[in-house]
Amino acid sequence: MVTTHNLGFPRIGKKRELKFALESYWQGKTCETELLATAAELRKSHWQQQSGLDYAPVGDFSLYDQVLDTSFMLGHIPSRVRDLPGDAIDRYFRVARGRSAADNASNEQASCCVSAGEMTKWFDTNYHYIVPEFDSNTAFTANAAALIQQIEEAKAQGVNIKPVIIGPLTYLRLGKSKDGSHKLDLLQPLIAAYKTLFKALEKTGIAWLQIDEPALVTELEPEWQAAAISAYEQLQERSFKVIVATYFGQLQDNLKLACELPVDGLHIDAINGKDEIAQAISLLGASKILSLGIINGRNIWINDLNATLDWLEPLHQRLGDRLWLAPSCSLLHVPVDLDSEQKLDEDVSSWLCFAVQKLAELSTLATALNKGRPSVAKVLKLNRALIDSRQNSPRVHKPEVQIALSRVNDSMARRQSPYAQREVEQRNKFKLPLYPSTTIGSFPQTAAIRQSRRDFRSGTLSAAKYQLAMEEEVTHCVREQEALGLDVLVHGEPERNDMVEYFGEQLDGYASSQFGWVQSYGSRCVKPPIIYGDIARPKAMTVEWARYAQALTSKPMKGMLTGPVTILNWSFVRDDQSRSQTCLQLALAIREEVLDLEAAGIDIIQIDEAALREGLPLRQSQWQGYLDWAIRAFRIAANGVGDATQIHTHMCYSEFNDIIAAIAAMDADVITIETSRSDMSLLDVFDEFHYPNQIGPGVYDIHSPNIPTVASIVALMQKAEQRIPAERLWINPDCGLKTRHWQEVLPALKNMLAARTQLVANHRTKMVNKR
Question: How far apart are CA 73 and CA 96, in angstroms?
């Protein structure tokens, strides 16, 4: 019999219950007991939704981040947090966001507000994790209490459980050495901590433990491959069985290593690694379990069940009971339940599959293998009809878009003049001061803004009144920026629900869900729009808002757009053509918007590419192919403007050092990047790479409620000046401000501008001293 299991389930809840519980707790409206009760109810609901599986995961739930959970399970807590007052949950949220709920309670605990842990992308997804911090003094003290509590919860509810933890190789690989020490020097103390965890888990009587090792799908140096073997050789003493889960890509040169690890089973991502399965079967031997990730855990399209069975049936005949089936990876990356959707287009909806439905597909495949296809004949027949309808739909394929693509040429990707010439024109035009100040785009999305949007969508607020309400918000935002003294303003984006969904709602070939939320980090959820067909822009999307805002001020107003690569990477993308082709369609649509903004008198245009890096293949040997088409798409979107029009782009929460040449090739006049959580270490690359254009290193972390001090901002900018001439530096927050409150934003920006004043004075003093 085929065994079914799941690697992980979305933790946020169908209606984002976790998000609202967290934010209520952080704001002091609810207590810790209430937060933990909501978490327990969500876990109970999630296990019920997975009741059809042979094994359901335990430990996949997290209040903020599973990597941070692992750090706390290993007793690996940053020293700046370890000895502060409060309980474990206070320390947890201080690492996650720089402040716990208790730190809001009184001024006496202001000293407990600390720098949040660095945050970056989880492999090539839009999920962010808190980066483990290592140094030569790092020690581990294992404590499995939180995981064991969830195990006991699940057992009490009759769940057939399979606990999930992150493996030692991946945990070490994902962390960052803060003092230059070699991370692998920590392998032995880390393995000792895992042995302690294993001893604690043995007492719970579990049958299986899932150990996630997605690092095995990346390029590992020989010493890291040896570390993987050593780690698992030392973890053989256990009473339960272990299945190592790999996902997000092919194992390639790590396939033999993974198959020969001294464990009881191996999970392979069969969506990406289908071609490796035959070799894996040969390498695994006659006793190990092979789990195949046959349902895409990263996208939302229905599985072609008949085609999947065509290649699964021979494998089942060969493996028998040793065949397990699962999604390709955790379902964390897809929405919870398609049945929640009431307004999706009927045709498009019939082609979709969210987490709950993916588990139903898994059950159908298992039933077909265990009992034969006739046992699920009706389901297979309907699935075939839906697959055919999507392939043949005229809504998917548009001849006019294909004609536009055929007209694309290399000249469309080039600016009229080199940067040095453009910079002179722009300096003379804008006459900006030293360290020009700006923000990244969005300002607080207040309760009033969200209510107006809900009322407009529900029909209780007319279009005219909604327009007026948003114009009032834009006016307020512009006036606040003028009062602060910012140099380049933004309209604040009150009309936008999300930086990608907003554009998806206005482009042909897109669909938007009501409840298709996925977690980005902590309580931050996004609702990726769905690309189901060829992309076209029927009308201007942002021009009227930008024109209205520019009319309110004599200062430059930035037009705010999301770039084609980020729209692609933060959408659920059609899987019937290459991603590069879809990205080029998006580039043409954004190019049209850029040119319309320029024609409307918007002379500074920001095209955000926050997600450029996360589209990189996990193996560096494959990067150049992706970067070639991604950078070309950005340039086609941006480069139709004149020399005097200044193009900005923004990137957040990524490592850029190894793709800096590609970023320079984007040829944006100004780039703003996140650097505050990394303490400007992301700028180390500029020690060796001469970046020719202007750059705005983010000087404070907008994802933390902490207000930055003037001194901290000055210190960060001084670090930036060691690598980049002051004349090419901008000063700005590290990301958009939509998730913050005005009472946080205004003092933070005041301090940022006070820091700029101090920096200008320091610079003048230096210039005088040089004479």
Answer: 15
How far is CA 66 from its chain centroid? 14
Write out the two tokens for 491.
């309209």
**What's the pTM value of the predicted model, to 2 decimals?**
0.91
Using DSSP, state whether 253 is helix, strand or coil: helix
pLDDT at residue 689, as a whole number: 80
| Rounded distance between C-alpha atoms, residue 247 and residue 298, angstroms | 10
By annotation, the residues acting in catalysis are 703
Terminal Cα distance for the chain, rounded = 84
Q: Is 498 helix (H, G, I), strand (E, B) or coil?
A: coil
Q: What is the rounded distance in angstroms from the CA atom of residue 40 to the CA atom of residue 454?
A: 30
Low-confidence ranges of the chain (pLDDT < 70): 102-112, 653-655, 676-682, 771
- Classified as helix, coil or strand, 669 is coil
Q: Which residues contact 256 (CB under 8 A, 6 or more apart)?
A: 283
How confident is the model at residue 402, as a pLDDT?
Answer: 94
Q: Which pLDDT value is given to residue 163? A: 98
- Tokens representing 393 are 């739909």
Evaluate whether 412 touches 639 at the Cβ level (below 8 Å).
yes
CA pair distance 458, 460, nearest whole angstrom: 6
For residues 172 and 189, the answer to whether their CB atoms sit within 8 Å is: no
State phi, psi for 632 to the nearest 5 degrees: -60, -40
Q: Nearest 10 degrees: CA dihedral of 542, 543, 546, 547?
A: -160
Q: What is the CA radius of gyration of the chain?
A: 26
CA–CA–CA angle 360, 363, 366 (5° rounding): 155
**Residue 598, C-beta contacts closer than 8 angstroms, at least 6 positions apart:** 605, 641, 642, 645
